[in-house]
Automatic annotation (TrEMBL):
TM helices/strands, residue ranges: 20-45, 57-75, 87-107, 181-203
Keywords, sorted A to Z: Amino-acid transport, Cell membrane, Membrane, Transmembrane, Transmembrane helix, Transport
The keyword Oxidoreductase appears for this protein: no
GO biological process annotation, one example: amino acid transport
The protein, known as: Amino acid ABC transporter permease
ABC transmembrane type-1 domain: residues covered: 19-207
Compartments where located: Cell membrane
Short name of any one Pfam family annotated for the protein: BPD_transp_1
Organism: Exobacillus caeni
Family: Belongs to the binding-protein-dependent transport system permease family. HisMQ subfamily.
Amino acid sequence: MQFDITIVFEYIPFLLEAALLTIEISILAILVSIIVGLIIAFFKISKFRILQKISDFYIEMIRGVPLLVQLYVIYFGLPQIGIEFDAFTASVLGLGFYAASYVAEIFRGSIQAIPFGQMEAARSLGMSYFKAMEKVILPQALRHSLPPLGNQFIITLKNSSLCSVITANELMHSTSRFASVNFAFLEFLLVASVIYFVMTFTISKLVNLMERKLSVGERRSL
């Protein structure tokens, strides 16, 4: 069969709809990763040995098991013990918990990069440890962690293509389905590649814009 890109044209609206679902899954997954990653980061820097061990175990275990296997466990494995998720929820949880192992290290590094004297100064003003962390340390750490968090968001969006194996109707799943029906794999994959590129390029530019605005605000405050 000859190459014919026009075959894809009538499916563009469906591919764009699937791309929107991909973005939705990615946004929710990154929110999960930020919440879980922040908790794991606090465990990591805690003075309690047991919490440090828990964070180390989580990071090493999640990073040591392929994301594809984790998605299979959540979607196909957990129903055997009575825990069942639909494909959308399983995708969000799988991507979120996987990304959290990297987000945790981003937060840990950003928090520990803040001079300890700032914590001491906040405590000397009567703030509790958690209040000082909330008002002084975390705002600066979040600003410093924005670039790597942006990169992680892009990685999570690209990793969402693996969710096609658990029947989540995101971009890759729709692309494969339409390509199989029309026997036009190259045409559909090329168009999907363009859509993925547009999404990741847009996110990259938005992160760069936010980073510049935060840098300007930081210089003004100085």
